[in-house]
Amino acid sequence: MHKKIVIIGGGFGGINLSGKLGNNKDYEVTLVDKNNYNFFPPLIYQVATGFLEPSAISYPFRKLFRKKDNLRFRLGELLKVVPESNQIVLTNGTVDYDILVFACGAETNYFGMENVKKNAIPMKTVGDAIQMRNRILTHVEEATMSANQEDILENLNIVVAGGGPTGVEISGMFAEMSANIVHKDYPEIKHTGAKIYLVDGGSAVLKPMSKQAQEHTYAALTKLGVNIILNTHVSDFVDNKVIFSDGRQIPTKNLIWAAGVSAMKFEGIPDTSYGRGKRLSVDAYNKVEGFDNIYAIGDTCIMTSDPNYPDGHPQLAQTAIQQGKNLAENLKLAVENKPLRAFSYKDLGTMAIIGRNKAVADLPHPELHLKGFIAWCAWLFIHLASLISYRNRLNTLYNWMVAYFSKDQSLRMIIRPVDYIEEKKKIDDIKAEIKKEEIAVAATDNNNEQGKSNLV
Questions:
Q1: Rounded to an integer, what distance in angstroms lies between the CA atom of residue 326 and that of residue 321?
Q2: 123: closest CA among 112, 135, 107?
Q3: Strand pairing partners for 352?
Q4: Can you tell me whether residue 160 is helix, strand or coil?
Q5: Predicted confidence band at 175 (pLDDT cuts at 50, 70, 90)?
Q6: Are both 3-34+76-106+263-335 and 114-259+349-406 of the same fold?
Q7: For residues 241 and 254, is the Cβ–Cβ distance under 8 A?
Q8: Do 302 and 275 touch, CB atoms closer than 8 A?
């Protein structure tokens, strides 16, 4: 009989695990995800800034699984696990498993700041990217219609929280847009004094990278016009003001949150199975502590058995990819009763793009630092090669070529789904009802005051 493997999450780990098990006669694999498509997170910010369309970095799971008879897709969101009966409960039903694999990645971490969670713009999903594009473009349009300087700055100032690769890349993109695009398309907002801020609690941007990469990035971003604020973090976001830990305030409606991620806890998995940062504790084979048939890979787990990474592996795409492939091989070896292979992470390097012809890269073997045009070309090649389909690669390459030679792109459209419009209408109706009630109360108060005057 085929063993049933259920994979929760279709990111880097889940898609590599399922792909390696494709057409395997020993396993029937079901991948569960709340979206019906895989997407490429490193390029989310380019969708958010209008340089790529969502389909350039996304691909449907079902189309991906077409020629693999043992792979199935299930749309749904995990509610809880029932280990006693080998079942998971989804938002739309239950699924049985023989082997369960968590490959859920991580979620945005707001560090307990409710106002930031409510009002900031996250950068984790395609939906986040579209929301950000809509909000930023809407705020720019609002600025063109205002004569109030304070209102203009609130609409145009941008604060990016987090000095990692995502924060650096999106700050550089906004700076280049400001220099090459915004003033052409929006002549009404020239010379407004609006600024782009990149804030991080550490002493340098791109903290995991080499000192050379950090210094080059700092200099390049500063030259592009990005205001970098270090050793400071965001402490609140209220009344269209970002408040820093040192007391400074910046008027803006645009706080982009790229400051950190956190693993998720799952109902049905005991607290004893979790390690630092809410990550599931796993052994050298990615098996979750306390279970014989539940595994975890990627950002959602922490493995301390790798001698080169005793505090756990970095929460990067390569970790999830390599763990997914290794687990697939071990599941094949298990069927043949052969010894399993302990996971050992291979560091392939780190890179970040800063802007046009500007990037940094740290390569480990041999230890080598690249910057400028060479690093930029390496970044483009690796990211293109990492996209999941040829269609994605060609689409992305075409958009990049147009943007490179024209210093422009044509995807700056505010597109809101129908449910957003309906939701906004409901909110507007509620506001209208509140306004009517306020008018009615005011009228009653006036009548009472008039009555008192007549009595006097």
A1: 9
A2: 107
A3: 360
A4: strand
A5: very high
A6: yes
A7: no
A8: yes
CB within 8 Å of 247: residues ≥ 6 apart? none
* H helices present in 338-389, as ranges: 373-386
- Two structure tokens written together for 44: 């989310």
Tens of pLDDT, residue by residue over 246-284, are: 999 999 999 999 998 889 999 999 999 999 989 999 999
Residue located via tokens 């847009």: 177
pLDDT tens sequence across 43-85: 999 999 888 888 899 999 999 999 899 999 999 999 999 999 9
- Comparing CA positions, the residue from 25, 105, 36, 84 lying closest to residue 336 is 25
CB 107 within 8 A of CB 124: yes
Distance between CA 198 and CA 242 in Å, rounded? Answer: 12
Give me the residue label for tokens 């979620």: 107
| Residue the block writes with tokens 């259920």 | 6
The residue length of the chain stands at: 456
- Give the integer Cα–Cα distance in Å for 227 and 193: 13
Cβ(256)–Cβ(132) below 8 Å:
yes
CA distance 221 to 169: 10
| The CATH fold of domain 114-259+349-406 | FAD/NAD(P)-binding domain (3.50.50)
Q: Are 166 and 123 in contact (CB under 8 A)?
A: yes
Q: Do 297 and 101 form a contact (C-beta atoms < 8 A)?
A: yes
Q: List, in sequence order, every beta strand (DSSP E) within 345-436.
A: 350-355, 358-363, 368-371
Domain boundaries, the chain: 3-34+76-106+263-335, 114-259+349-406, 424-456
- How far is the first Cα of the chain from the last one, in angstroms, to the nearest whole number? 94
d(CA 387, CA 412): 23
Residue 324 tokens, joined:
């997914």
Q: Supply angle C-alpha 298, 304, 306, rounded to 5.
A: 85
- Vertex 34, ends 28 and 37: CA angle to 5°? 75
The phi, psi pair for 207, rounded to 5°, reads -55, -40
262 exposed, middle or buried (CB, 10 Å; 0-12, 13-18, 19+)? middle
- How crowded is the C-beta side of 257, counted as CA atoms within 13 Å? 27
pLDDT score recorded for residue 306: 93
Region 376-390 average pLDDT: 88
Supply the residues annotated as catalytic: 169
Give the CATH number of domain 3-34+76-106+263-335.
3.50.50.60
User: Cβ atoms within 10 A of the Cβ of 144, count?
Assistant: 14
How large is the C-alpha radius of gyration of the chain? 25
Cα(333)–Cα(62) distance, integer angstroms: 27
